[in-house]
């Protein structure tokens, strides 16, 4: 027994021996932790700056559309084509973002996207012709399109435990960028001597600043590669699962049409609403502020609406409230555009918050991650294609009717099918229940 005890005693002492880390190791760990914290803070700054740059190319142009038309000799129809370019670019270039991210890394693609925005915004005011203006606008919008798709992916991948707060920060920065460009473009243009070219080009500096925080992430592809391996493993694990044919789902189609019609309203608003107020006698600076009010409504409501939607089994009541707000706003815009301008700007801003509701419903109308991915791709790509003709048609109607009566009637008329499709998309069901085949 003593022998056993004697044999056990050294083992007990050995098991309790703890090696004290060397001072150099401690310093190395601290440096690594500090470096990770620094990169995390830099990434947050990059996300905020990138989100802020995703709309000024559109709303700054809307604030100066009359000057741009006069300067380039555009007709109303061509100006309508110009306001249709954003959804067209989002539909065409946005689908390339996942493939580019797999090849080069999401950070590199966003960095290149910010550079494309800056180059397009800097060049387009000085090209001297309508076709070249459209082409350089498309360059900036291409950068917006790929960044728009990849930003939520980066948020989910880099901040898996803070998706809600980071998405809220990203959404707020996007809405603030949208509203800021609408509000200050005209005053900036006046401060720069009244030259609309300088007033548009100045936004390139903001995009150039957004390039800088992304430079350290250009060569970081490990996470994207890990994500690709995870996706391959997920596909292999679900190889024998039922196939989801999302195009067979009525809910998917209702959501796609709802997304498309709300995007139509948003791009008509960004492209034409300031001009509607200006034609009603509102000064250019105040018209830009009114557009900014409409855009800034998305800052608080982007937080409220998704939380409310997830607590309801059916999102129809929210859709109806947004639709009613839009109809009242368009009615006021038709009957008394100048007298009640601030009220109509607020009401139309509320109606335009169908965008965060649509994104929320994408996540609620599918049970699985693969289903959400398929539904999101289908609803957004189809929706942006649906939204392309709207701004162009508004320009054609404005030119040929000589006023805003018919265009506003069109906007109000589109709000009715948008509301119907939103109610259908908000029903408590999933695409897996409707579109799964053996």
UniProtKB/TrEMBL annotation:
SUPFAM superfamilies documented for this protein: MFS general substrate transporter
Entry GO CC: plasma membrane
Entry keyword set: Membrane, Transmembrane, Transmembrane helix
Principal cellular location given in the protein's record: membrane
Domain Major facilitator superfamily (MFS) profile: 39-430
NCBIfam families in UniProt: CynX (TIGR00896)
Name listed for the protein in its UniProt record: Transporter
